[in-house]
Write a structure and sequence with these properties.
Elements: H1 2-13, H2 21-46, H3 53-81, H4 95-125, H5 135-147
Helix pairs in contact: 1-2, 2-3, 3-4, 4-5
């Protein structure tokens, strides 16, 4: 639903040509912004000062996706210069492909672990939800408090 709305805004309202980087990135940022708006209503119902936390969290996610695309495009260009051609969509079940997938899953899990405390810490602080923080989560939360 949000993807269709973002596509409509990007391609019809802003008139970005379909299939271009400009169109796909504008849709990506719009979807995450719309998701933040929807989630902010729930946080607003919880407590007014929490209404802007989703914007920070979803912005971190879209920045990470943009960074991932940058790294992937850089790696592809290096491979292309080395004479290695990738075949998108063609799974060859090689160890290299498995390794890349494992690295990708680890990156996603790491990024979620780094950014999720920035969103869920505030409800804990106001007593909405009481959770037992483990040492790693406590370390990350202390880092976030210094950065924000």
């Amino acid at each position: 639903m949000l993807g269709g709305l973002a596509r409509l805004i990007a391609n019809k309202f802003f008139k970005f040509p379909r299939g271009t980087k400009l169109s796909s990135y504008s849709q990506l940022y719009l979807v995450f912004f719309l998701s933040a708006i929807i989630h902010s209503f729930a946080d607003l119902a919880l407590e007014e000062r929490n209404a802007f936390r989703p914007y920070k969290f979803f912005f971190f996610q879209v920045v990470a996706i943009t960074f991932e695309d940058l790294v992937i495009n850089f790696a592809k260009s290096l491979l292309h210069r080395s004479g290695i051609e990738l075949k998108p969509g063609k799974a060859d079940d090689s160890w290299a492909e498995v390794g890349v997938r494992v690295i990708g899953y680890c990156w996603v899990l790491l990024w979620l672990c780094l950014t999720l405390p920035a969103w869920v810490d505030e409800p804990n602080a106001i007593g909405f939800r009481s959770s037992d923080r483990r040492p790693i989560t406590e370390f990350l939360l202390n880092k976030w408090k210094r950065w924000t």
